[in-house]
């Protein structure tokens, strides 16, 4: 077991279009239940989330699809009981509706189910996980052990957005947004017209997928870009043959220059672009290290060098099976 973490770190935050303040670095939990807990130094998912809160993470990102909402809720409630934090409102908790609950009335139901699993009264942020809808009775497992095609549904995300507005109006979530949407799909929501605008688009983002055009679009629309897989998701999403972001020569040289870890350079790259970062880790020292990015700054020249590494390379897929033939699959568009 690694040394216990004690140093608490303060993280800069941004204000969303609806006034909600969110820290620029949060704790990602996707697939934490898949992680090999026999691996040296790996914490249990429960301990990893509690360790993150102890270190000073004040944003926890989960999803119905990750099948860990129960664990997240337990870790949050215990952190309050154990006085690691004093109250629920010190945390921003974000979860997401899965593709099997895209009908308007299903969104509210799915949100209530997530809250019941977490045993919490409200969410800070609720997102549509992906634009595509699947049949409501389709499986929702993190790793299906067969790769038969998923059955799709023709529910459009504009209907799902009405369900998201219901969630906000019912006081179940303070802020509502989307994830893995391209700019045209966001425009469709904005054109509905919508009662509540999306405040966030959470997408994969790192130097190999800079999302510069999507960022410019989102900035114009006052939508916060939030990055999942900021480290290139080496253990879970990256496929054999894909270049590993953490091994990149330019980024490693920069880490040496600043006397920081490669992960810290990657997180700093996002934070300086005002993009939120959601790194995941199951080891205490890395959980702490990934938050500790406040005491250095990349020069504009180095930031430009990192942005120039863009290869339009995506590590993250949806649902472990190929769904690129879904009519609403987002990544056929350039951005
Ligand atoms: P571990 O859990 O052993 O720390 P992403 O957030 O892009 O999805 O990447 C998560 C992956 O990156 C996890 O496999 C995690 O492994 C690894 N990781 C997290 N923090 C660091 C770090 N500071 N240095 C190297 N690898 C890291």
Descriptive notes:
- It is built from ten helices and ten strands.
- 46% of the residues are buried.
- It has 335 residues and is of the alpha/beta class.
- The model is unreliable at 1-6 (pLDDT under 50).
- It has helices at residues 45-55, 69-81, 104-118, 157-169, 183-190, 212-220, 249-258, 262-272, 284-291, 300-307; strands at residues 13-15, 21-23, 27-28, 59-61, 92-97, 123-128, 173-179, 200-204, 224-228, 276-277.
- An eight-stranded parallel sheet has the order 3-4-5-6-7-8-9-10.
- α1 (45-55) packs across α2.
- Bound molecules: adenosine-2'-5'-diphosphate (A2P).
- Residues 28, 229-235, 246, 261, 263, 279-283, 286, 289-290 line the site of adenosine-2'-5'-diphosphate.
Which cofactors or ions or other ligands sit in this model? Answer: adenosine-2'-5'-diphosphate
Shape: globular
Which stretches of 5+ consecutive residues score pLDDT under 50? 1-6
Q: CA-to-CA gap between the ends?
A: 43 Å
Helix content: 25-40%
Which features does this protein show?
single chain, 335 residues, alpha/beta, 8-stranded parallel β-sheet, two-stranded antiparallel sheet, 10 helices, disordered N terminus, binds adenosine-2'-5'-diphosphate
Secondary-structure map:
Blueprint: E1 13-15, E2 21-23, E3 27-28, H1 45-55, E4 59-61, H2 69-81, E5 92-97, H3 104-118, E6 123-128, H4 157-169, E7 173-179, H5 183-190, E8 200-204, H6 212-220, E9 224-228, H7 249-258, H8 262-272, E10 276-277, H9 284-291, H10 300-307
Parallel strand pairs: 3-4, 4-5, 5-6, 6-7, 7-8, 8-9, 9-10
Antiparallel strand pairs: 1-2
Helix pairs in contact: 1-2, 1-9, 2-3, 3-4, 7-8
The structure holds adenosine-2'-5'-diphosphate.
């Amino acid at each position: 077991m690694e040394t216990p973490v004690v140093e608490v770190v303060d993280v800069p935050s941004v204000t969303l279009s609806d006034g909600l303040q969110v820290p620029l670095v949060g704790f990602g939990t996707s697939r934490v239940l898949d992680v090999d807990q026999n691996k040296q130094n790996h914490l249990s998912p429960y301990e990893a989330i509690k360790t993150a809160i102890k270190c000073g993470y004040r944003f926890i990102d989960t999803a119905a699809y990750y099948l860990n909402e129960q664990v997240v809720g337990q870790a949050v409630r215990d952190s309050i009981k154990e006085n690691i934090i004093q109250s629920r409102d010190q945390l921003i908790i974000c979860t997401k509706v899965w593709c099997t609950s895209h009908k308007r009335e299903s969104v509210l139901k799915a949100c209530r189910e997530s809250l019941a699993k977490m045993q919490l009264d409200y969410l800070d942020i609720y997102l549509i996980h992906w634009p595509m809808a699947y049949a409501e009775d389709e499986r929702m497992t993190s790793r299906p052990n067969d790769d038969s095609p998923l059955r799709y549904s023709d529910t459009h995300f504009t209907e799902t957005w009405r369900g998201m507005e219901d969630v906000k109006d019912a006081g179940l979530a303070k802020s509502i947004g989307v994830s893995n949407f391209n700019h045209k799909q966001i425009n469709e929501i904005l054109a509905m017209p919508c009662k509540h605008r999306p405040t966030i688009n959470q997408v994969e983002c790192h130097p190999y997928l800079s999302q510069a055009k999507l960022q410019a679009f989102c900035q114009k629309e006052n939508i916060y870009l939030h990055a999942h897989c900021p480290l290139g998701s080496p253990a879970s999403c990256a496929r054999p043959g894909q270049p590993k972001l953490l091994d990149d020569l330019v980024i490693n040289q920069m880490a040496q220059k600043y006397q920081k870890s490669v992960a810290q350079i990657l997180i700093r790259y996002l934070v300086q672009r005002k993009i939120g970062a959601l790194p995941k880790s199951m080891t205490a020292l890395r959980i702490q290290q990934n938050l500790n990015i406040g005491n250095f700054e990349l020069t504009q020249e180095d930031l430009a060098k990192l942005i120039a590494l863009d290869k339009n390379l995506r590590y993250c897929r949806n649902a472990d099976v190929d769904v690129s033939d879904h009519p609403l699959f987002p990544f056929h568009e350039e951005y």
